[in-house]
Amino acid sequence: MSQDTIFALASGVGRSAVAIIRLSGLQVKTCLTGLIGMVPPPRSAVLKQLRSDDGPIDQALVLYFPGPHSFTGEDIAEFQVHGSPAVVSCLLSALSRFPDCRLAEAGEFSRRALSNGKMDLAHIEGLIDLIDSETQMQRKQALRQMQGYLSDTIAAWRRSLLQVMALVESQIDFSDEEDVSSVDLQQVVTRIQDLIASLQQALAQSDQGIRLREGLVIIVAGPPNAGKSSLVNYLAKKDVAIVSPIAGTTRDLIEVPLQLDGFPLTLIDTAGLRESYDPIEQEGVKRALSRAQQADLGLWLTAPDQHEHPPAGPDWILVRTKADLLPYADSDHLSLSLHTGVGLEDLLQRLKAEAARRFGSGDALVTRERQRQAIDAAVLSLFRALDRLKDGSSLELAAEDLRLAGRCLGSVIGVVGVEAMLDSLFAEFCIGK
Ligand SMILES: Nc1nc2c(ncn2[C@@H]2O[C@H](COP(=O)(O)OP(=O)(O)OP(=O)(O)O)[C@@H](O)[C@H]2O)c(=O)[nH]1
Ligand SMILES: [Mg+2]
User: Fold this and answer.
1) pTM of the model
2) What stretch of H or E contains 299?
């Protein structure tokens, strides 16, 4: 790891009341002395004039967090300055003139926290997701991960695995003495089975955890003039799409991010599906059909005089629009009217139910594909170990499978075999984190 002292703007870019610039590494004390003439007492704010060789920079609240009890584990200083782009750039350039000091790369502070054992990989993934969270359910899930929900569980799983491994090793040691105790072997088998059950339970909820990070994609499709754009505007609570009585109004895909009960959704308005000679409309229809393939859920809208069926694609909710023009209720459709408001609450309830079903209650343990694959691989190794123990083929090979399972679990929190993915993970961070 580089020995450089790194610094970056930790708060948002642009004008603001306060901007925070953070600094981490061996030169922190030198920089503090150079800029404010002192090193503040640990973890207490001091109000000081920041000065460089060119004169005063700004008045700032300055904090000092000596390592190892800091976010990165190194000495850290924080400058809370006035949030003007000119102040920020003046301070950043003053910092860059100190020896061995440079601007941080994306995620570099967190990467140091990982290297110095302040956080593990699952904590860091939670932190990334917390910064990216847009809805309340996403925030809750990310905060839990950042505070160690998955990490602690992995640690507990690894502890029980270690106990099982110790039992197996002791059987190997004694196996040349006459009787390998079948009681002990049975105990090992039961413990492995219990562990597999907990891992599988976590995997069963992983779809929900992963989806909550990514959001649910709902496509709104149907024949032209069905009222698709009108409904999208209603759900988005703003005029995102043009509405008109002319069939074929919408051509492009219009994506609108939404929140429903704290769950993240993306609603996509599409071109009305019909045969057309207009090449632009044809392209719109092609895009609508192809996007429908990737959506999680579809709303298939038809007006009372339209009887088209939805194309292959996601699960469709059949919606009859313009119910105000309909003399009778249509039992296999959800009927609604934007003119009278009838059926709109039913649609919202239905969407909330679909979201709740697909996202779960937001307490999934596994929230990333990477974690799922590692736990999946651990389960496979555990099953292999079980087979070997049951048919008594080889204790040594079973022990090896258990070790392998341990490595897979270890990779979830980054203790083994994750170097290759770190670069891409930290690139997900903004600079300054
Ligand atoms: N009577 C009635 N008319 C509606 C209702 N909802 C929408 N409309 C009208 O239906 C017409 C078509 O609405 P749009 O939302 O543009 O329909 P669309 O499905 O997006 O149409 P394309 O983009 O052309 O595929 C407009 O004139 C709307 O005002 C409704 O609930 N009742
Ligand atoms: Mg439209």
Assistant:
1) 0.81
2) strand 297-302
* 97: number of Cβ within 10 Å: 12
Q: Are 156 and 145 in contact (CB under 8 A)?
A: no
- Taking the alpha carbons at both ends of the chain, their separation in whole angstroms is 17
What are the structure tokens assigned to 65, written together? 């967090």
Indicate if ligand 1 lies below 6 Å from the C-beta of 25.
no
CB 31 within 8 A of CB 102: no
Q: Which two tokens stand for residue 142?
A: 């990310």
227 close to ligand 1 (CB < 6 Angstrom): yes
Q: Which amino acid is at 419?
A: E
Residue 288 in tokens: 């609508």
Say how far apart CA 170 and CA 396 lie, in whole Å. 11
Q: Is the CB of residue 344 less than 8 Å from the CB of residue 234?
A: yes
Q: Does domain 214-359 have CATH number 3.40.190.10?
A: no
Residues 6+ apart with CB under 8 A from 354: 216, 297, 317
Residue 63 backbone phi and psi in degrees, to 5 = -125, 145
Is 431 close to ligand 1, i.e. is its CB under 6 Å away? Answer: no
Residues contacting residue 412 through CB under 8 Å, at least 6 positions apart: 121, 122, 150, 154, 370, 371, 374, 375
Extents of the domains making up the chain: 5-119, 124-205+366-414, 214-359
Cβ neighbours of residue 309 closer than 8 Å, sequence gap 6 or more: none
* 305 alpha carbon – ligand 2 mean position (Å): 17
Residue nearest to atom 32 of ligand 1 (CA): 322
Residues constituting the chain: 433
By three-state DSSP, how is residue 216 classified?
strand
* CATH superfamily label, 124-205+366-414: tRNA modification GTPase MnmE domain 2 (1.20.120.430)
293, containing H or E segment: helix 279-294
Does ligand 1 lie within 6 Å of residue 250's CB atom? Answer: yes
Burial class (CB in 10 A: 0-12, 13-18, 19+), 103: middle
Which token pair is 360?
A: 């779960």
pLDDT in tens, 202-238: 999 999 999 998 889 999 999 999 999 999 999 999 9
pLDDT tens digit sequence for 245-301? 999 999 999 999 999 988 899 999 999 999 888 999 899 999 999 988 999 999 999
User: Phi and psi of 307, rounded to 5°?
Assistant: -130, 20
Backbone angles phi, psi at 207, to 5 degrees: -55, -45
Residue 39: which of 48, 52, 29 has the closest Cα? 29
In the CATH hierarchy, which top-level class contains the domain 5-119? alpha beta
